Amino acid sequence: MKPKTTAVQITGYVIWGIETAFIILIGLIVGLALANGDKGTFTATEMSVLIFVVCLIGFFMIALQVLSFFAIFNLHRNYSMVWPIILTITAALSFRLMLIPSIWGIIYNLQNKTHSI
User: Fold this and answer.
1) What CA–CA distance (Å, rounded) separates 111 from 36?
2) Of 1, 21, 26, 40, which residue is the least packed, with the fewest Cβ within 10 Å?
3) What is the pTM for the complete model shown?
4) pLDDT of 51-97, one tens digit each?
């Protein structure tokens, strides 16, 4: 039997989708700016370092988004605090908007854990 999706998780998925679209949009803007920028401003070495740093930040953001997705998916597993705390940490490292489902998930899990005892 598939566990039901709660309002906390639906909110988390909506925020996750907004953040993912924002990351893709910013990635496209930065990529176009790097590709079409003034070639005389940076040397080849400086441009290579800049592209490397932008790619590194991009991979870090993608990893945080994947971790956030799994944290939202497992938010109420055994009413544990592990996944809401992981979601809070990913919110602290990336977009603060993810704090809404993480704090709501902590409250939800605490309430249901005390009622199930």
Assistant:
1) 53
2) 1
3) 0.85
4) 899 999 999 999 999 999 999 999 988 888 999 999 999 999 988 89
Tokens of 27: 């990635």
Give 99: exposed, middle or buried? Use CB within 10 Å, 0-12, 13-18, 19+. middle
CB atoms within 10 A of CB 48: 11
Distance CA 38, CA 34 (A): 9
Q: What is the largest CA-CA distance in the chain?
A: 68
Confidence of residue 19 (pLDDT cuts 50, 70, 90): very high
Distance CA 46, CA 61 (A): 23
